[in-house]
Amino acid sequence: MTPPTAVVLSFDVEEHYRIEAAARLTIPDDARREYADRMEAATRKLLAKLDATGTQATFYVVGEIAVSHPRLVRDIAAAGHEIGTHSWSHRRVHTFTPETFRDDLRRSIDALSAAAGVAVVGYRAPTFSVTRQTAWAADVLAGVGLRYDTSVFPVRHDRYGVPDAPRTPFRLRGPGGGAILELPMATWRLGAQNLPVAGGGYFRLLPLKMMFAGIDQLTRAGAPLAMLYFHPWEFDPGTPRLPLGRVSRYRTYVGLAKTDGRLDRLLERYRGRFRRAIDVAESLDAAALPGFALTP
Ligand SMILES: [Zn+2]
Questions:
Q1: pLDDT on residue 63
Q2: CA of residue 54 relative to chain centroid, distance
Q3: Mean pLDDT of successive 10-residue stretches along the chain, which has 296 residues
Q4: What is the DSSP string of 112-166?
Q5: Distance from Cα 143 to the centre of ligand 1, integer Å
Q6: How many H-runs (helices) and E-runs (strands) does the chain carry?
Q7: pLDDT for the residue 158
Q8: HEC profile for the chain?
Q9: Residue 11: predicted pLDDT
Q10: Ligand 1: distance of its center to the CA of 14 in Å?
Q11: Within 10 A of 118 (CB to CB), how many other CB atoms are there?
Q12: I want to staple 210 with a disulfide (CB 3.0 to 4.6 A). Which of 124, 189, 206, 234 is the partner?
């Protein structure tokens, strides 16, 4: 019997100032330190909640944090959660060449594996920046010893997305012939569109029932998983506000006061179905999955 669709809670662990909307801001050192402290506190609060509900999750951690906060990385892994990489310093894939991207990935994998005490085999690109413009990244990902990638968001968006990518796991093929197992972000298919209901700003902005509708639709379709994503700072309503423009400010801070209660409802509704991304990846027969060529 096939197991019911797994719900994967994933957390992209980064200090709040690393968000794409703040990429052009200069952040003073004392502010960086405060954001780093709050990142650790918010992550530990999440660990306590996961522990209290017996939930296992996956944490995609920025490599530099393995150096600045090695105990945090070790504690996440020791609690039974998966550690994946969220790049070395949160630069989007677009800013690299294939060679520098490979170096960045290896550096993050080595540092995180050392801090965690277990091998890191999963990757999530900053801002879902594995897209058609960075198709070459699939070849690099296939060649650095990773087990899976989870950077493709099958939606139309101004900053990211591969709208025609499959909504369930597939083999992501690069233009150079490399292939890697892809666990795409959860979407809700409505008419001819995939709606982004996997987490982040959508989790804060949209009614929670839209996320549930997406997960339940994937479940009815027999999908192996529904991949969700969150950030520790999204569970820290008192996080100091970055001086963003009006639209970015709204997108970034809408609904921050509601996230804690929403996560509780999510944990309650899908109790018993939460699994780590690596466990889902290992349960799949990659050779039997459809291929999808990421072409420029
Ligand atoms: Zn990120």
A1: 98
A2: 21
A3: 87 94 90 96 98 98 98 98 98 97 98 98 97 97 97 90 96 97 97 94 92 97 97 95 91 92 97 98 94 94
A4: HHHHHTS---EE--GGG--SGGGTHHHHHHHTTT-SEE-----S--SS---TTS-
A5: 22
A6: 10, 11
A7: 79
A8: CCCCCEEEEEEEECCHHHCHHHCCCCCCHHHHHHHHHHHHHHHHHHHHHHHHCCCCCEEEECHHHHHHCHHHHHHHHHCCCEEEECCCCCCCHHHCCHHHHHHHHHHHHHHHHHHHCCCCCEECCHHHCCCHHHCHHHHHHHCCCCCEECCCCCCCCCCCCCCCCCCCCEEEECCCCCEEEECCECEEEECCEEEECCEHHHHHHCCHHHHHHHHHHHHHCCCCEEEEEECHHHHCCCCCCCCCCHHHHHHHHCCHHHHHHHHHHHHHHCCCCECCHHHHHHHCCHHHCCEEECCC
A9: 98
A10: 6
A11: 14
A12: 206
What separation in Å is there between the alpha carbon of 199 and the centre of ligand 1?
A: 12
C-alpha of residue 2 to centroid of ligand 1, in Å: 33
Question: Distance (Å, rounded) from C-alpha 245 to C-alpha 74?
Answer: 37
The whole-number pLDDT of residue 2 equals: 66
Question: Exposed, middle or buried, 258 (CB in 10 Å: 0-12/13-18/19+)?
Answer: middle
pLDDT for the residue 1:
56
The DSSP element (H or E) to which 98 belongs, if any, is helix 98-116
pTM: 0.97
Residues with CB under 5 A from ligand 1 (ion): 12, 14, 126
pLDDT at 286: 87
**What are the structural domains of the chain?**
6-287 (3.20.20.370)
Under 8 Å between Cβ of 117 and 77:
yes
State the distance from the centre of ligand 1 to the C-alpha of 82, rounded, in angstroms.
17
